[in-house]
Automatic annotation (TrEMBL):
It comes from Actinophytocola xinjiangensis. Gene3D superfamilies: 3.30.530.20. It comes from the Bacteria. This is Coenzyme Q-binding protein COQ10 START domain-containing protein. Residues 49-132 form the Coenzyme Q-binding protein COQ10 START domain.
């Protein structure tokens, strides 16, 4: 199982405003050329997780999954997990936290294809793809100059995800 985290400090954007922008997944395909489609499999209802179907370009094919999404406006967290799809395990969250003059937006994801013999080849490719898609979303929502940072093995670096 592999985990990674991408984050950005977004100055001058209130946390509630930032979170409101992040929960509208219908705009994501326009923000990243890797996202082929996102469709609502089950529309949101009070107290019931939203389900979305994702199709994302992966190598010479398409990575597909359906995920549940719990959107919590009070905690400014959108937690998700795979219901069905190409991963053996897949889940994570978008979280928005207050900062001095704006907010910090965090994308975290954990995934496993369930094919141990191919993990050393597939996992780094999938990580780059997931970080690139999340980076495209962050820059598309908050502006192209948004500086992205990635956390790996307790080290934070400026992300090269584009």
């Amino acid at each position: 199982m592999r985990s990674t985290q991408l984050w950005a400090v977004v100055p001058w954007v209130a946390p509630d405003v930032a979170f409101g922008r992040l929960v509208d997944a219908t705009v994501f395909p326009a923000l990243s050329e890797e996202i082929r489609s996102i469709d609502e499999a089950r529309p949101p209802a009070p107290g019931v997780p939203r389900h979305t179907e994702w199709a994302v370009a992966f190598r010479r094919g398409v990575l597909r999954w359906t995920q549940w999404e719990n959107i919590d406006h009070v905690r400014r967290a959108a937690v998700f997990g795979q219901v069905d799809g190409d991963f053996a395990e897949f889940g994570g969250a978008w979280r928005v936290q207050p900062e001095d003059e704006g907010c910090r937006v965090v994308f975290e994801v954990t995934y496993d294809f369930g094919i141990e013999s191919l993990a050393s080849a597939m996992d780094p490719i999938a990580e780059r793809l997931l970080l690139r898609v999340a980076g495209d979303i962050l820059r598309g929502v908050f502006g192209p100059e948004t500086e992205l940072r990635v956390d790996r093995d307790h080290h934070t670096t400026i992300a090269e995800v584009g």
